[in-house]
Amino acid sequence: MSAAELTPADLDDQGRADLRRLILTLADTKRMLGIRYSDWLLGAPSIEAGIAASGMAQDEWGHARLLYALLKDLGEDPMPVEHDRAPEAYASCDALDAEAGDWADVVAFMAVVDAALTVLLEGFAEGAYGPAGARAGKMIAEEGFHRDMAAAWTRRLAAGSAEARARVAAACAAVLPRTLAWMAADDAAATRLADAGILPSADALLGRFAELHGPVLAAAGVDLPTPDRSDWDAERGRGPGHPGLEAVERARGDLNRELFVE
Amino acid sequence: MKESVYDVFARKDRGDALQHIGYIDAPDAELARVYAWNTYNEQNWFEMCIVPRAQIIAVNRTDGPFARKEAVS
Questions:
Q1: Whether complex ipTM tops 0.95
Q2: Which one of A51, A61, A194, A237 is CB 3.0 to 4.6 Å from A34, fit for a cystine?
Q3: What CATH number does the domain containing B32 carry?
Q4: Host H or E run for residue B12
Q5: Given an 8 Å threshold on Cβ–Cβ distance, is B25 in contact with A151?
Q6: Do A48 and B31 touch (CB under 8 A)?
């Protein structure tokens, strides 16, 4: 933890806007990742794998709720953010805009997107913003099992049939360039966050990802590419596009809107 | 995919006895750890561990889940 711990009162309007983008980057991705995992409660290769996907979905949704709650410290009510935004406003990682087509895609979500998300969250938790460190400990501990699941399944598919190896490699390679760009934002807001000690620099985040996750991906025949930062949307901190309406309706709870009791 | 049975043991608090709480099927020990945790973590266990069922040696029973006919190497 940084010696000079920052609180919301230490931030100017620009600093609060940058921090809000970071919080939504993390929280929206956790919510979308939870939806993508939950799709595989049924349909995973074994009952145990489905239960694990379900448990990971619950973890991600719980973490999303805790992260959205960080907005309260910035004077913003998280309820409209969680329940009223259009798909175009979501800051979730580009890779989650579409659902997983097969289990290899789910493994890529674990090995690339979940991995990058935790690298970013750890960087935030270890940085100068005090409320992040206070909330993230349990989340990061739970993510240890996600990392083990990702590594085990990536290695397993890579050691399987030629088709299994090709499919997991293709799935990881497809999501890596945009996911690395999303994790390691390299624009004015990200530079200000790094200068304030709230987040590591883009290069440091990429280095951490390579150190932690590069070896497992290399075992699957996947090299780390250059981040794809084309058509960068600096307002949301991601590439163009957005998650599909069906997923956002589930994230917002549209079907049960009339039944809200909160 | 060849799977093996792993038995899951856990204790509620430090100093409590380890209890057998269930089992899972997994292709290897690494996935068995993850599956055991995700399947049985509804309680706040102090400690959880797993054992390949093939490594459990029956002492006094020749029936039940832990009885084995062949010798354990």
A1: no
A2: A61
A3: 3.10.20
A4: none
A5: no
A6: yes
